[in-house]
């Protein structure tokens, strides 16, 4: 088992900057605004010559449990219970605060290995200021500047000493795990229930939830094993509002992180509030996922609170038929993330969408389909010139992609392209999957130049 290293500290001491630096890539959103990180965020990293699971946490604050700050603290406390080593980060420039001293006393009672990391200790003056952290009674502080990449070598050495040498059977450079997890992004509008759904799927409170919209600010990944025993990497994302309403820099960064998570995903779960129905913003997010070529499943959340379910479902189906025809047959799972009802049906739908997204069709089958489609409905002439489609291949899946060759194939009208995609979808049973159609003309060697 790889050891878990948890980064703790009060807000705005540079925990997420340190997390990104140790993970050697920009994962967590970083901003001068205190409290940007609200949920645990984890990544695999190599520190001190060994592989670790690195966990970034929300800032520690004294607050009632029913407030956002209180729920953030509860999330950090849950991370602490799984820790093999704690990096307790303080701000060397600001000096020790009463909150730092209170949280240090709390960590001493936890009886866990703790390293005090005095961040923002750039330059000679910063290192001197870091020495004040001796007062916390948690051992020698390690002076670093995560922003300026100073002191990280000493921190790696301190982590190695705290965790011990790596096991002899652990390779120096671990190869990529062949059993790579299925990558899923949970997307949707603010307050649709994305974080509640992630908690319901994982069976524990991994994400901070509440009635306040916009609680999740960053894209937060969690590894998990689903009902099939397969590994899953779930990414909860910030809610996406209409572009015209996004004004604050922090929200712009949150949306950028969401788009990044969507592009890295293999299947996207679009969470729709069943009480509000599917509006234009939901459709916009679905179209974005389709353009990126991702498998898509709709989680129709808050289903338990819907009074007229038959009418609500009819409206949804009509909306999908009229406005999302390019994903005809998309899987819709009515559920309640709050109560857990229907959640057990979501991952089977996701696994089915993933299998279809990976589906390949042999060249012989494909050309028999093409011949039948052409005989039932021949291509129209364009500007009095006949279009002749000769053969097709499937160069790739993920998503399924058809390449059709023929004379003036690139001139096919849009409605005939849709006809080919829809008959392909129906023939090979690929409902709700993005399908790419590539048309490639063949040059007539006898045509006049």
UniProtKB/TrEMBL annotation:
It comes from Roseomonas fluvialis. Keywords: GTP-binding, Nucleotide-binding, Repeat, Ribosome biogenesis. It comes from the Bacteria. This is GTPase Der. Gene3D superfamilies: 3.30.300.20, P-loop containing nucleotide triphosphate hydrolases (3.40.50.300). The gene is der. Belongs to the TRAFAC class TrmE-Era-EngA-EngB-Septin-like GTPase superfamily. EngA (Der) GTPase family. GTPase that plays an essential role in the late steps of ribosome biogenesis. NCBIfam families: GTPase_EngA, small_GTP. The lineage of its organism: Bacteria, Pseudomonadati, Pseudomonadota, Alphaproteobacteria, Acetobacterales. It holds the Pfam family KH_dom-like. GTP 1 binds at residues 9-16, 56-60, 119-122. GTP 2 binds at residues 188-195, 236-240, 301-304. InterPro entries: AAA+_ATPase, G_ENGA, GTP-bd, GTPase_Der, KH_dom-like, KH_dom-like_a/b, P-loop_NTPase, Small_GTP-bd. Residues 3-167, 182-358 form the EngA-type G domain. Associates with the 50S ribosomal subunit.
